[in-house]
Queue: 2 jobs
Job 1
Amino acid sequence: MTLPDHIKIEAKRDLTDLVAIPSVSARVEGLDACADKVAALLADAGFQTAIEPGDVGPFVTGEIGEGPFTLVIYNHYDVQPEEPINLWTAPPFSLTERHGALFGRGAADDKGEFVSRIAGWRLFRERHPGPLPFRLIWIVEGEEEIGSPSLVRFLEKRYAGLQADLCWWEFGEVDIRGRPVVLMGFKGVLAIELSVRTARADLHSSLGAIFDNPLWRLASAVASMRDAAGRVLIKGFYEGIEPDRATRELAASPPFALEDLMAATGGQKLLGAVTPSNFYEHLNFEPCLNVNGIHGGYEGAGTKTVLPATATAKLDFRLVPGQNPKAVADLVRLHLDDNGFDDIELIVHDAEVLGVRSDPSHWAVKLGAKLLEKWFGQPAILQPSSAASGLAHPFVHQLGATLFGAGITHHGAMLHSPDENILIDQFHQMIGFSADFFSALASQCGSVADVGYQQRETGS
C-alpha cells in the first residue's frame, strides 16, 4: 500500500512549518502563531474553525459534518522546551531527515500526530468529497505540556451538553517490532515541589557539626516516601485502585519484550519488583513516585565548603484510576507531618489530571484495530492504559466518549528529549490509516450509528 506523492509532500511541508514555530507553552512562546497555523490548516481542509483563548495558549477548533455519531479528535500544538540544545544533532526547530526519521521538537509530540491525521483527512476528502455523515469535532490546544490548566473549563463552556461517541486521543504507540499499540486509558499525574530552609543564609560547612543540612533533610523526606523496590510508602496511597479482572487480563501477556524496551530507551536499572513477565502490568496498573530533581547549595566548578540554607525537590506521581491527585497531595502532607518533616513546605504544581480507562469492545475501536493491522501489517495491541498521563478524563466523564489512542510514537521517539523524532514509514502508514478510518466511519455510520447510541445510553 502506497500513498500518493502529493500527500507525502504536503504532509512533510506542513510538519516542517509547524516544527519551525517554537510553541513552547512553558515560556508562553510562539503559541498564537502556532494556533493561527493550525487553524489555517484546518480551514484549508474544509473545517469551520475558531480560535478561543485559554489561560496560556489559545484553543483551536474545527468542525464539520452532522449525524448521530460524533468523533472528537484531540491534539495539541505546544511543545516541551528544547534544552539542552547542545545535545541536539541539528537545530531543534528545524525539521531534519536522517536515517529514515524526521527530527525536531514536536515532530512526535504532538505535531507529527496532528499532521498525519490531517493529511489522512485530505486524502479521504479527495476520494469522498460529499457531505460527511457523522459529526467531527477537532480540538487542538496549546497548554498540554503544562498540564492543560484550562481544558476542562473550555470543554464545559464550549461543548456543554455534548455527547461524543469516540475520542481519538493525541497519540498512540508503535512498538519496536512495528506493531501498533492502541492506548485505551492514561494515568493521572500529581506534580509537587518540596522546599526547606534551615538558616537565613548559607553557612560555613564547619557548622554542619551542629546544624542540620537542608539537602540531607530533604533527601531523607523523599526517601521516606518510597522503598528500593519502588513501592510508595505513603499511608492510604494504594486504596481502591485494583483494576477489574477483564482489564487485568488485557495486560497479562506482554506484547513486547522488556529487553526491547530497555534497548530502545537505554534504561538499565530495574526496580526490584519488576521482571520480564510482569513489567507490562506495572506499566499499565502501577502508580509510581518519581524524583525529577533535587537542588540546593553549591553546584559550580571545583569545591565550596558550604552548609546550604535551602533545598528544593521536584517530584511527580503517576497515578491510576481511583486515585485523585488532590487527595494524594493531602496524603503527602500528612506523611511529611507524621514523619517529623512538618517544616518542609509542599507546593502543588499540577493536580488536575485523573487516571482513566475505556472499554476496548467499542465497535469503532474494533474497526480501527482492523485498519491498523491493514496498514502496519501486524495485529494491533489494545493496551488498557498508557504508562504516561493525559487529561483524558473530561472527554470520558464529561463528554461520554470512548478513548482511542492510535498514533506513531515509537519507543525511540525521544519524547521531551533532544533528537525527538518519528519514523517516516510509520508517518506514512498513519496517514493511510487515517484516511481509511475516516472512510470506514463514514461508510458505516448509517448502519452502526444506532449501535453507538445504544452503547452510550447503556454506559458500555
Note: Residues 188-241+287-353 form a domain with the Alpha-Beta Plaits fold (CATH 3.30.70.360).
Job 2
Amino acid sequence: MADPSVKSVETAMLRIAYLEHGPSNGWPVILSHGFPYDVHAFDDVAAILAQAGARVIVPYTRGFGPTRFISDEAMRSGQQAARGADIIHLADALRLERPILGGFDWGGNACCSAAALWPERIGGLVSYAGYDVIDVSAQRNPNAPSFERVIWYQHLFQTERGRDCLAAHRRDLCRILWQEWSPGWQFDDATFARSAIAFDNPDFVDVVIHCYRWVFGLAAGDPALQPLEDRLAKKPVVTVPTVTIDGTADPLKPGGTADHARMFVGPHEHHVVDAGHNLPQQAPRAFADAVLRVRDWLA
C-alpha cells in the first residue's frame, strides 16, 4: 500500500517521490539524502526548519524508495551530473525559486554539483563534507591502505560478485555501513527498517553499482551528461552562500574538509560537529542551524 504522506512529481527522466514539510508558501529548501540512507535521515531537520517557516522538500534519490524512471530504456546512471540535474529538475517541477540545498553523502555530492553548475538557480548550500564534487581522474589513484580498507564496499561493487552480494544481502550490507560510518550512533532496529524499505526499489542495485563503477572510472557515464561532467572536472568554484560541515567521527572523511574553503568564493562558514557520517540524523539541530545560517545571509 502506498504511503499517503509521499507525494510525487514528474520530470523528463523520473517520477520523483518526496516528503514535504512546512507551509506551502514557506521559503524553499531541498534536502538530499545519500547511500545507503533515505528521506527519513532528515525527519528531525525538516521539522525544525518547518517550524522556522520553511517549505522543506525531501526527495527519494534515483534508485531509492518510490522514485521511478519514466522509461524502461533510460540508463540507470548513478553519476553526479545525473543526481545534480535531478535536483534542478525537481525544483523546476515544483516551481521552487532559488531553494537552499542541503545534503550529505550522495546528497552532498548532488547538491554541490547542482550549485556549481547552476548557481543562478540556487539560493544557497549546506554541504556535509565540504566541496563534494567527484574527481574521477583522482579516484584512479590509490589511497593509503587504512582508507582503502574503509571503502571496502566500493571495491566489492566493481565485480559481478559484488553486484550479486548487494542484490541478495542489501539490508545486511547497508546496516554494516550505517554502523561503521557513524560509530557513536546507537540506532535501533525500527529506525534502520524504516529506511531500508527504500532499498527495495527495482533500480537500487543498478544505480548503486553504476555510481561506484563510474566513480572509479570503470563504467561509462550517460553520454548526454558528458558536457556537465566535463564542467565538473574543471572544479568550478561554488559562488552561492554556503555552510560546510564535518563530523568528527566520520571514517569516510579522515582529517575533515576545512582545506576546501578556497572552493567557496561567496559567503562561507565551516562547522565541525560531534557526529559521524549520517550527521543529519545524529545531530539534526546542527544541520538545521546551518540551513538557517544560509537563510540569514539571504534575508
Note: The first strand starts at residue 7 and ends at 10.
